């Protein structure tokens, strides 16, 4: 018989299948964030994607959390050769031109987000099969294709995150880390939910947000009910 740790047994006692208020779930999650790693606090949401016409709705956009989510993204910038030094001074971890294209082509991808100047988009197109499946293909709608490198880099570093639902309407987002205060986590959560409500298309009938779960990296998932 597998022996369970004291931490596991303690967390097990705090499980519940009932819907609970956000504040209560946050208290429980804070109590169970006892691992040595810097756990993230994550929300998982299922949205209604069934439209009255035009097929299923797919959400892919970016949202800027007021307090960020605590994740440190390694940012790469693909730009013209004469702009690489400027990109590094603005905070890019990696900046390159043809040399960066060659590295990506060879599968050397050691970054979390990729920003591209419009002038380099024609050269990166052939790498879509490499970058696309990893969610790294630059996109103007997501703020990752721009000549304003200062703004693009700053936005990502200060909490701009991409959200995208899967085929079943599920999407996930980290709203902070375990060392965030309750007020900061609550502010991020409320901001995201209000943002999501505004993304509802007019031709989707009924509730747009079907369910919400809150969890930590190593903890229990709680189903959220009621108002914030």
Describe the model.
The protein has about 230 residues and is an alpha/beta fold. The chain folds into two domains: about 15-70 and about 160-225, Ribulose 1,5 Bisphosphate Carboxylase/Oxygenase (2-Layer Sandwich), CATH 3.30.190; about 75-155, Ribosomal protein L1/L10, domain II (Rossmann fold), CATH 3.40.50. The chain has eight helices and nine strands. The protein has helices spanning about 5-10, 20-30, 85-90, 100-105, 120-125, 130, 150-155, 180-200, and strands at about 40-45, 60-65, 75-80, 95, 115, 160-165, 170-175, 210-215, 220-225. The strands form three sheets. The chain has a four-stranded antiparallel beta sheet. A three-stranded parallel beta sheet has the order 4-3-5. Strands 2-6 form a two-stranded antiparallel ribbon. The longest helix is centred in the C-terminal third of the chain and has 17 residues, at about 180-200. It starts with 5 loop residues before the first helix and ends in a 5-residue tail after the last strand. The mean pLDDT is about 90.
Concise summary:
The protein has 8 helices and 9 strands.
Describe the SSE topology.
Layout: H1 6-12, H2 22-32, E1 40-47, E2 60-64, E3 75-78, H3 84-89, E4 94-96, H4 98-105, E5 113-116, H5 121-124, H6 128-131, H7 149-157, E6 160-164, E7 170-177, H8 182-198, E8 209-216, E9 222-223
Parallel strand pairs: 3-4, 3-5
Antiparallel strand pairs: 1-7, 1-8, 2-6, 8-9
């Amino acid at each position: 018989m597998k022996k369970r740790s004291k931490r596991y047994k303690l967390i097990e006692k705090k499980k519940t299948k009932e819907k609970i208020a956000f504040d209560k779930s946050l208290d429980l999650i804070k109590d169970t964030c006892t691992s040595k790693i810097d756990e993230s606090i994550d929300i998982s949401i299922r949205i209604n994607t069934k439209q009255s016409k035009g097929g299923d709705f797919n959400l892919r956009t970016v949202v800027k959390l007021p307090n960020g989510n605590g994740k440190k993204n390694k940012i790469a910038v693909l730009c013209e050769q004469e702009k690489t030094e400027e990109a590094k001074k603005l905070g890019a971890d990696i900046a390159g031109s043809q040399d960066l294209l060659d590295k990506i082509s060879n599968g050397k991808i050691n970054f979390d987000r990729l920003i591209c100047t419009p002038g380099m988009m024609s050269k990166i197109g052939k790498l879509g099969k490499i970058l696309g499946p990893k969610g790294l293909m630059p996109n103007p709608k997501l703020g990752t294709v721009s000549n304003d490198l200062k703004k693009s880099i700053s936005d990502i570093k200060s909490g701009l995150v991409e959200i995208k639902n899967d085929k079943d309407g599920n999407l996930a987002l980290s709203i902070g880390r375990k060392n965030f205060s309750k007020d900061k986590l609550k502010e991020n959560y409320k901001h995201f939910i209000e943002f999501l409500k505004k993304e509802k298309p007019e031709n989707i009938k009924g509730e747009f947000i079907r369910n919400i779960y809150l969890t930590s990296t190593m903890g229990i998932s709680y189903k959220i009910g009621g108002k914030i």
